Amino acid sequence: MLISYNWLRELTGTKLTPLELRERLTMVGLAIDSVDENEGDSLLDVEVPSNRPDCLSHVGIAREVAVIEKSKVQSPKSKVPKTQGKASDFAAVEIEDPYLCSRYAARIVRGVKIGPSPDWLAKRLNEIGQRPINNVADITNYVLHELGQPLHAFDLTKLNGQKIIVRRARAGEKLQTLDGVDRVLDNEMLVIADAERPVALAGIMGGLDSEISTSTVDVLIESAYFDPDSIRRTARKLGMDTEASKRFERGADCENVVNAQARCVELICEIAGGIASEDVIDVYPRPLTARSITFRPERVESLTSLRVDVAEMDRILVALGFVEGAAAKDTKTFVVPSWRVDVSLEEDLVEEIARHVGYEHIGSELPPSAMAGEYQPAELKRRKIRRALTSLGFDEAINLSFIDPAHDEVFALAATNQLATQSSFVTLSNPILEDVTRMRPSLLPGLLQSLRHNFNQGTRDVRLFEIGRVFAGPDGDELPHESESLALILSGGASEQDRAQASRELDFYDLTGALQAAISALNLPPLVFAEAEVKHLRAGQSANISLADGTVIGSAGTLSETISAGYKFRQRVYVAELDLTAVFEIAEHEIKYTPLPRYPSVVRDVTLLVGRNVAFTELVGAIESEEIDDYQRVKLVGTYEGQNIPAQKRSVTLRVEYRSDQRTLRDEEVEERHRRLLDSLLKKFSAVLH
Q1: How far apart are CA 219 and CA 103, in angstroms?
Q2: Distance CA 393, CA 462 (A)
Q3: What are the DSSP E strand ranges found in 170-252?
Q4: Taking residues 166-178, what's their average pLDDT?
Q5: Are strands 205-206 and 101-110 parallel, antiparallel or unpaired?
Q6: Would you call 507 helix, strand, or coil by DSSP?
Q7: What percentage of the chain reaches a pLDDT higher than 90?
Q8: 263 and which of 78, 178, 519, 582 could share a cystine (Cβ 3.0–4.6 Å)?
Q9: Are 555 and 537 in contact (CB under 8 A)?
Q10: Dihedral pair phi/psi, residue 528, rounded to 5°
Q11: Confidence class of residue 128 from pLDDT cuts 50, 70 and 90?
């Protein structure tokens, strides 16, 4: 909002320069984006917070300046020079919906002469970005920027029946507004109507049929208070953003309705001539009650650490418009001014004092506590997972919990609790963005979006993980179901430290290895991977993830061609997601000390030609089921498919380790044990030594 420095000086007599005002107002919470010189004046571009509608005027800013300089605001005093007749003799006002319009005031000015505004008025409006129209319309805009109260002038002869009715629009009713656009209304919108039709959108914009023109002689000046929520809904639905709607939807000053109207009528009589009615038609069916707050001065120091004299507290609050009421031993009572719609608590008064004393004087210290802080058990487990994955080259992603409904039913859910059985989605009734109306049932949509962003920025080698909550629809009247998940995504080359180029491409084993490392960091049994059909993964390259007891907790594999094509991915993408809620419920292994082996181990490599459907976990299970003496473990060295290998076969190389804890094994003993193991594998899997 643009504020004229010369106008402020008229209201406050400020001795501060525009640049000094910029600094001081910014420090009390009214940030000044810029100060521009304009023909002998300076314009301050004030960034008014959404909860401070009282500062959407020069008088509102002047109050803050007066507190800063310990001066007073010279508010304009209105006195209409010439009056004649009762307003009710010329017009009538009726409010059909007092909940949407608490107050409506109308005053008549007869015999006006419409023409250009005087130079001083046109210049002042031009400075703050308002285009001059005619003297009456310009005066309503001037008072709006002076006092913050939106006003509207109707041509009285164009109002059928010389009557104003404040009512809801009827479904399908139409109104051509001052911008020349035909608006189709519904019964949730509040309109100003005459005896036959709507003539204005309440609190937003007037109608073209009742506007002031050069032939206008008699005018009706409207000043009202409208429900902020109603104005906001109508403005958003119709895509309108006017100076009036900005103020009404944030909360106007209901007690300033008649005062602002009197100021407007005074200027019209002075500039455009005419005779005003002696009184005003003031329909006020639901008067707003004054708010009072009990205030304890010691709360200022306890909440902010600022030590402020009680007299200084009183000065600040009174200068801002708060009226001191009855006082007790340790408490005071302040009546909140009608223009401060944002103040309702004692803490709000403390904030008013703190911002004018200076936020920069607030000390930084930890709040006192008689208890020692500690991590929750789940938080320690999350930290272990993060450390394990970041040590493997992964970066953590943090995405919004809201996603596009286009992802519905695309991804298999990872949760094992009630979340997995829910078919409904959690839909936001008031989303922050129009196309993200779902609470995410999976972490994968956010990670895929992050991956695409990296690709678009030229980063082709990506390893990301995310820990977060996922959601599903509630049962009956219950709250939505929540579960915690871990998701991984990787694509491109396996970049190594101190290497300019990746030595190989990332694959499924990098994905499963990272998951196993994360689980191992929690000191839990290893995960079990079994081939399965998963709807968002490529057929034949997907697996279910299970715990040692067989409980399925997630899936891992290659992203399906359909989803990859939708994101325009040109390289393979591997994804995994598992239910951390189920993982966190598993008891950790007890860690026991074991000495380092005293005797050396013996390693034997074996390469088997087996069917493509034989999994490594099956080979491990078969080896361990033999219970060979002195067997320690087996590791996968590698696999091979291709030239000289039958189409339905693959070559698998295993490394088997033997060791005794009592003595050094002899070669013939190892050969005898290894031969028994090989015979068992060859028979069980119809394998061939390769």
Answers
A1: 20
A2: 9
A3: 174-176, 182-184, 190-193, 198-201, 205-206, 219-226
A4: 94
A5: unpaired
A6: coil
A7: 70
A8: 78
A9: yes
A10: -115, 130
A11: very high
Q: Please list the alpha-helical segments (H only) found in 70-201.
A: 119-127, 135-147
How far is C-alpha 289 from the geometric centre of its chain's CA atoms?
Answer: 34
Q: What is the mean pLDDT of residues 36-42?
A: 89
Beta strands at 198-201 and 205-206: parallel, antiparallel or unpaired: antiparallel
* Residue 567: closest CA among 407, 425, 432: 407
- Judged against a pLDDT cut of 90, whether residue 529 lies above it is answered with no
Angle between helices 377-391 and 508-521 (to 10 degrees): 140
Q: What is residue 415's predicted lDDT score, i.e. its pLDDT? A: 53
Alpha carbons 394 and 313: distance in angstroms, whole number: 54
The torsion region of residue 85 among left (phi > 0), alpha (psi -120 to 50) and beta comes to: left
pLDDT (tens digit per residue) in 75-126: 877 787 788 999 999 999 999 999 999 999 999 999 999 999 999 999 999 9
Distance CA 211, CA 253 (A): 25
Give the span between the Cα atoms of 673 and 601, in whole angstroms. 14
Tell me the C-alpha distance between 383 and 387, whole Å. Answer: 6
Write the pLDDT tens digit of every residue in 378-409: 888 999 999 999 999 999 999 988 888 888 88
Would you place residue 421 in the very low, low, confident or very high pLDDT band (cuts 50, 70, 90)?
A: very low
Q: Domains along the chain?
A: 2-69 (3.30.56.10), 87-283 (3.50.40.10), 291-360 (3.30.56.10), 377-584 (3.30.930.10), 602-689 (3.30.70.380)
Q: Tell me the C-alpha to C-alpha distance, in Å, between residue 215 and each of 115, 222, 299.
A: 10, 20, 61
Per DSSP, helices labelled H in 431-507 are 444-456
pTM of this structure: 0.59
Q: Which residues does 362 contact at the CB level (< 8 Å), separation at least 6?
A: 304, 305, 306, 354
> Average pLDDT for residues 543-562, to the nearest whole number?
90
For strand 573-579 and strand 481-491, is the pairing parallel, antiparallel, or unpaired? antiparallel
